[in-house]
Amino acid sequence: MIRRSVDNANIEQKWCMPAEWAPHEATWLSWPHNPADWPAKMGVIPWVFGEMVRKLAPGEVVRILVNNQAHENKARSILQSSGVELHRVEFFRFKTDRSWVRDYGPIFIRRRGPGAGLVMAHFHFNGWAKFVDWTRDNAVPEKISRKLEIEKIEVLHGDRPFVLEGGAIDVNGMGSLLTTEECLLDQKRQVRNPGLSRKDIEGVLSEALGLSNIIWLGKGIVGDEDTHGHVDDLCRFVGPRTVVLCHEKNVRDANYRLLEENRERLEQARLEDGSRMEIVRLPMPAPLYFDGRRLPASYANFYIANSVVLAPTFNDPADRMALGMIGDLFPDRQVCGIHAVDLVLGLGAIHCLTQQQPA
Question: Which residues contact 16 (CB under 8 A, 6 or more apart)?
Fold first, then answer.
C-alpha cells in the first residue's frame, strides 16, 4: 500500500471520481449501533437497514461494517428475516462510532490511462467538526484499504490532513463537482479546514478527485445542523448535464429563499465544457419536527445503485410525485421508496448511510 499526498502525485497517475450511477462492485453500509443517533427509535432502525439491503443485494454485493461477532449476528438475523440473500452480503468487523458511512468511508476514484484501476482517496473525518467521538470512523478507510488491498492516497494540504465528508460533494463523473459554501468555507461554526481559502479548497479537491470545474451553492436546507450544509440534501447530479434541486413552493417556509438563491446560482453556473445544465426541481416534503427541532427531510437524499434507486419517503402527499420524478430520470432502474421518517431523526437518510464502490 502506497501513501502519498495528492500534492506530490505523479502527473502520469491522474484519476477521476466516477458518478454514482456508474457501475458498482458493491455498496457499503455500517450497521447501526449508536442509540444517540436515533432517539427512542433504535429498535426500528435496523429493520429499515434490512429493507435497504433487500433492495440492493440483487444488483450488487453489499458490504457491511459491524463492531464484532455479536453485532454481526444481530445483523444477520434481521437480514435473514427481511428476506435478504445472505450470500450477497459481506461483513467486515471494523469498529465504528456511527453509521453515516457516506461521510467517513472511503471515496473510491479511478486512475486514468496505463494501470487504470481503483484507488482510494482518504479524506480525513473529524465528526463534522462537532462531535468528539469520531476516531474509529476516521480509521475505517485505512482498514478497508488493507483488507481489500486497494491503494490509499492520503489527501493533504501541505502536511496537514484535509477534512471532507462524502455528503458534502456530488460529481457528474465528467469533471464537475457540486458543493456548498456553508459547509466547506465555514471558518466560524463547524470548521473542517481552518485557515484554508476557497482557492486552497478548490485546489485540493481538483487534484484529489480529478476535477476541472467546481460549482458552489450557498446554504444547505434548514434542519441540516449536524453536517452544516451538505449538498446531498439539496442538489444532486442525475446525469452528466442534469441536476435535481429541491424546491419549496411555500414562500413562508424557511427553505424557500435559500433554495431560490441556489437555483439562481445554478442557472448562472457552467459545466466542465462551458455548457449550462438542465435543472429539475424536486419537491420538498412538509416540514418534519422532533422534540421541537426541524429535521432535514429531503427527497434529494436518494442513493443510485446498479439496479435500483433507493429514495426516502415521509408519509407525505409529495412522496408519489418525488418518486415519479426520480423514476423518470432513471428509467433503467427500479425506484424503491424507503420509509425515512425514523431515519431522519438521526439528521440524515439513505444517501448518508451508503457509499458506492465502483466496479
Answer: 109, 110, 112, 173, 175, 209, 210
- Provide the 10 A C-beta neighbour count for residue 291: 8
Check: CB of residue 341 under 8 Å from CB of residue 285. Answer: no
125 phi and psi angles, rounded to 5 deg: -125, 135
CB 346 within 8 A of CB 97: no
Could you tell me which of 249, 314, 323 has the C-alpha nearest to residue 288? 314
End-to-end, the C-alpha distance of the chain in Å comes to 20
Q: Where in the chain are the domains?
A: 6-358
Positions annotated as catalytic residues are 352
pLDDT tens per residue across span 116-138: 789 999 999 999 999 999 999 99
CATH class, domain 6-358, is alpha beta
Grid cell for residue 346? 438521526
Q: How many CB atoms lie within 10 A of CB 214?
A: 21
Contacts of 35 (CB under 8 A, 6+ apart): 42
CB 134 within 8 A of CB 97: yes
Amino acid code (one letter) for 18 = P
Q: Quote the cell numbers at residue 245.
A: 434541486
Contacts with 110 (C-beta within 8 Å, 6 or more apart), sequence order: 15, 16, 17, 18, 116, 117, 118, 119, 358
Q: With the C-alpha atoms ordered 224, 228, 229, 233, is the resulting torsion angle positive or negative?
A: negative
User: Is 3's pLDDT higher than 80?
Assistant: no
Say if residue 314's pLDDT is above 60. yes
